[in-house]
Design brief:
Elements lengths: L6 H15 L4 H12 L2 H23 L2 H6 L2 H27 L4 H6 L5 H13 L2 H15 L6 H23 L10 H23 L3
Helix pairs in contact: 1-8, 1-9, 2-3, 2-7, 2-9, 2-10, 3-7, 3-8, 3-9, 5-10, 8-9
Length: 209
């Protein structure tokens, strides 16, 4: 197949996907924290959950499910309410950690973050965020479907690859920050930022913005 119907749509999809995913959000903040303190196996599972979830949502958008979501505002309202409550609670927990900072070594001795807990938190941060559906299923899906019958899947594939690259870099690259997070004050700063991000997103989601 010619490059203009394969490689170019894939590259455009990669760029568009990265532009949306890289934006600071609850999911990225959690993956970053986990990448610093978590075990490689736990990080790998969380990265896989994020990437597979994005792939499923983007594929759903290409298949036209975005139209269904657009016509089902009640479903998004329910997701918004539950998701905002989850973000606010997580934000308050992060704020509490600001006053009870950890260091990297104690976290490792405690077994770091449990795999099951990390997986469930990641699923909640991903699937209870209505903006995820709007960004992936509705926006990316509609843009993909503007590429043509054959090109749309190459475009979607590029966006999916972008998700894999970003979350892998974020999760596994975070270990480079471990020397900095050997100090309690570093964790205090990170958790303060995470608390602000989670609470801001949770409140904005609750009021419908």
């Amino acid at each position: 197949m010619p490059l203009d119907t394969t490689l170019l749509p894939a590259l455009f999809g990669l760029g568009t996907g990265l532009a949306l995913i890289i934006a600071i959000g609850a999911q990225n903040a959690y993956v970053l924290r986990l990448g610093i303190a978590g075990r490689p196996r736990t990080v790998a599972v969380v990265v896989a959950i994020c990437a597979v979830s994005d792939a499923l949502l983007i594929a759903a958008g290409v298949l036209g499910i975005g139209v269904v979501i657009d016509k089902a505002p009640v479903a998004l309202v329910i997701i918004r309410i539950v998701g905002s409550a989850f973000l606010v609670v997580y934000g308050l927990l992060a704020a509490r950690r600001v006053f009870r900072p950890q260091t990297l070594e104690p976290a490792k001795q405690q077994g770091s973050i449990a795999l099951k807990s990390a997986a469930l938190t990641t699923l909640a941060l991903t699937w209870l965020n209505p903006h995820v559906y709007l960004d992936t299923v509705v926006f990316l899906g509609s843009v993909a479907n503007q590429q043509g019958v054959a090109e749309r899947w190459w475009w979607a594939g590029g966006a999916m690859v972008g998700s894999v690259l970003w979350f892998s870099a974020l999760g596994f690259g975070a270990r480079l920050l471990r020397p900095f997070f050997a100090r309690a004050n570093s964790w205090r700063i990170l958790d303060a930022v995470i608390a602000v991000v989670m609470l801001t997103l949770g409140i904005r989601m609750a009021v419908g913005f």
